[in-house]
Design brief:
The chain is an alpha/beta fold and 267 residues long. The protein is built from eleven helices and eight strands. The longest helix is centred in the middle third of the chain and has 17 residues. The N and C termini lie far apart (51 Å). It binds 3-methyl-2-oxobutanoic acid and sodium ion. Keywords: Cytoplasm, Magnesium, Metal-binding, Pantothenate biosynthesis, Transferase.
């Protein structure tokens, strides 16, 4: 398209052709993703995959802004959604609005994402009513890893399924334009997708969702260990290693730089 996709464009895709999305964090990789997907998430997973943190809990608003800017600047077509980091939105809806407004103003992104269902519904309504499109995130919510007892799939008993369904319905009714459903059993993903008026974006949530997302570094083969729900579509880590090995060998044997890479005096 000649203009960037918007949150309403994504909302309008409910029940239609699957929505394609990936994360991206840098100006190096985002331009390759941009023409091929519907939206790009600058996820707080960047703390783990780009900054070697143990969880996403240490990611700051400033770090999200730095990466969000880089991705907005280096793309032209996709809607850019930026994650609200842990601690920037939970205490009050006013805090949440101020943090979301900084993300929007300082990155130029088109929407923000936050984790949580029923307890975040009021916050989502408050932010959305003030002009900021909000994507929600339910099921396995990584910012709650300590409360969940680890990165584990969710919805294995009826009570858990009931609770996650209520979370999804609450964020939809609150005015979120889409909801990420992460790490849940397939029947629950299906039930949520039927129950809510907004697109469900699945990650480890079966093919029943209205769209899919993966962490770019995981699907490209840039991360050493990946969860069950990841499929590797590339072996970029191996490609990097073989390029670096070839360079190292040529430097050591003085065959790089060669004639073609060497300046000669003009006179
Ligand atoms: O931070 C992230 O990458 C995410 C997606 C996995 C949905 O929240
Ligand atoms: Na995230």
């Amino acid at each position: 398209p000649e203009r960037r996709r918007t949150a309403p464009d994504i909302l309008a895709r409910k029940g239609g052709e699957p929505i394609v999305s990936l994360t991206a964090y840098s100006a190096a990789l985002a331009p390759f993703v941009d023409p091929l997907v519907d939206f790009i998430l600058v996820g707080d997973s960047l703390g783990m995959v780009e900054h070697a943190m143990e969880s996403t809990l240490s990611v700051s608003l400033d770090l999200m802004i730095a990466h969000g800017r880089a991705v907005v600047r280096s793309t032209a077509q996709s809607l850019i959604v930026v994650d609200m980091p842990f601690g920037s939105y939970e205490a009050s809806k006013e805090d949440a609005f101020r943090a979301a407004a900084r993300l929007m103003a300082e990155t130029g992104c088109g929407a923000v994402k936050l984790e949580g269902g029923v307890p975040m519904a009021e916050t989502i309504a408050f932010i959305a009513a003030r002009g900021i499109p909000v994507m929600a995130h339910v099921g396995l919510t990584p910012q709650a890893v300590n409360a969940l007892g680890g990165f584990k799939s969710q919805g294995h008993d009826a009570a858990a399924r009931e609770k996650i369904l209520a979370d999804a319905v609450a964020v939809s009714q609150a005015g979120a334009f889409a909801v990420v459903v992460e790490g849940v059993v397939a029947p629950l993903a299906e039930e949520i997708t039927r129950a809510v008026a907004i697109p469900t974006i699945g990650i480890g949530a079966s093919s029943a969702c209205d769209g899919q997302i993966l962490v770019l570094n995981d699907m490209l083969g840039l991360t050493p260990r990946v969860p069950k729900f990841v499929k590797r579509y590339g072996a970029i880590g191996e490609a990097v290693a073989s390029a670096v090995a070839a360079y190292a060998e040529e430097v050591r044997e003085r065959s790089f730089p060669g004639e073609a890479q060497t300046y000669k005096p003009r006179g």
